[in-house]
Design a protein that fits this description.
The chain has one domain: Spore Coat Polysaccharide Biosynthesis Protein SpsA, Chain A (Alpha-Beta Complex), CATH 3.90.550.10. It is built from 9 helices and 13 strands. Strands 1, 4, 5, 6, 8, 9, 10, 11 and 12 form a 9-stranded mixed beta sheet that branches. Strands 2-3 form a two-stranded antiparallel ribbon. Helix 5 packs across helix 8.
Length: 241
């Protein structure tokens, strides 16, 4: 999959999932929303926004729930990062699939990119421009980025073979929290209902409608204080990409 110009990425909207409670990051997340937890002096979500911006994604949607006002005040309209941010406010967090479905009026009717706010990686997000464009053909409804299984998740999530993602297979990898999706994937979700993304992806995988790729580079799930400390060490060593 070749890299497209930033202009192509600018035609694709990107959503950052930032509504979660961050239970494993407590007590820090009791007063600081998890996306605003800092690594190397900047919020986790700022690192992500800057990487998306450099890849040409300038039209962003951020969903918020827990400590929503702090996230919105912390990021503003996104202009300091060279992007425009629209917020999808959830009265209570709707989980991954439900949150994306709730934000569809802001995302529009074309394929879009979604990224978890609690990851740090050196993935080239510009690659997802062509992935999203391919979803527009209707042959697939999702494209997932998979990574090597981290120590805290050795069993992995899905299998990747021949560019297709399946629920079972010989080599299991971990879903990175990075993907491109067609709006049709969420058509059956009642707006405002809770729904896990995996519950939508697994039936689509069974139909051969989920493509994927393997990212072998840096990827970290910053879900606990210990992993946050590890990210600080990585960034402090200058190897953060």
């Amino acid at each position: 999959m070749h890299r497209l110009s930033s202009g192509a990425a600018a035609d694709v909207k990107a959503m950052i999932l930032a509504a979660g409670r961050g239970e494993r990051m407590r007590p820090l997340s009791d007063r600081v929303p998890k996306p605003l937890v800092e690594a190397a002096g900047r919020p986790l979500i700022a690192h992500l926004i800057e990487r998306l911006s450099r890849a040409g994604f300038t039209d962003l949607v951020v969903n918020v729930s827990h400590l929503a006002d702090l996230v919105e005040r912390g990021l503003g309209d996104g202009s300091r990062y060279g992007v425009h941010i629209a917020y999808s406010r959830e009265e209570q967090a709707l989980e991954t699939g439900g949150g994306i479905a709730y934000a569809l009026p802001l995302l529009g009717n074309q394929p879009f990119v979604v990224v978890n706010s609690d990851i740090y990686c050196d993935f080239d997000f510009a690659r997802l421009s062509s992935a999203a464009a391919a979803l527009g053909s209707g042959t697939a409804c999702a494209h997932l980025v998979l990574v090597d299984n981290p120590p805290h998740h050795p069993e992995g999530d899905f299998s990747l073979s021949g560019g297709k993602v399946s629920e079972v297979g010989p080599r299991r990898l971990t879903f990175s929290g990075i993907g491109a999706y067609a709006p049709a994937l969420f058509a059956g979700v009642t707006r405002g209902a809770k729904c896990q993304l995996a519950a939508l992806l697994k039936p689509a995988m069974a139909q051969g409608a989920v493509s994927g790729e393997h990212h072998p580079g840096l990827w970290m799930d910053i879900g606990t204080p210990q992993r946050l400390a590890e990210l600080e060490r990585v960034l402090g060593s200058g190897s953060g990409g």
